[in-house]
Amino acid sequence: MKLQIAILTFIVSASVQAGDGTPTDGKIADEAKTPSRIVRSAEWPDFIGGTISVEQSLTRNSKGQYVYRYDDQTEATKQYHEASCADIGMNPAKGESITVGPGSAAWHCSSIESNSASDAKSTDYVIAYAPNGQVSAGQNFISYGTVRFNSSVSGNIQGSVQIDNGRCHTFYSEYYPPNTVGNHTARILCFAHAPQTMNTLMEGCVPRACASDRGSIRAY
């Protein structure tokens, strides 16, 4: 809790720009110098019972998608990303993530254990856990999708979390060395428009294994 409060103080002192409660594309700061970068802001928990608007700097890739990278962020955003992951006992994921859908935003977290030596008998695997639960209709909510994985070879872990037939959707990709055991969790923000049941999907892959899981979130 001390870490979260300290980070909240840092964010406020850094004057993180206020938003309207949902992520929005900001103005490009200098089109002549950075035409491929935008800023989005979203309301997130401040760890003391309220919310705070936090910015994410996104860079356009060759496919025209806007990509989040931890290393590209301001110190205030890095601090919030760290706090968001520490809240669930993890660290900020250092790969790339893409989040799409109106009112959608995400933080990606990881916890990694690298084996000291290769085990020829070890089995590569991925276990997926889709978001589930109940939320209030007419407001934003946060859901969690997680994969547990073991990869004996180097390469990327890739996957995605989808809510309500992909209306809120976040994709991630991160490189890991061989003989890595770990977890990857996506913390995704979405909006429940009305009382309904929204389907969810969690997918994940390492070079030699994949898994998926389906769930549901009920808005009441």
From TrEMBL:
The entry's keywords: Signal
Signal peptide coordinates: 1-18
Name of the protein this chain belongs to: Secreted protein
Organism name: Stenotrophomonas geniculata
Lineage of source species: Bacteria, Pseudomonadati, Pseudomonadota, Gammaproteobacteria, Lysobacterales
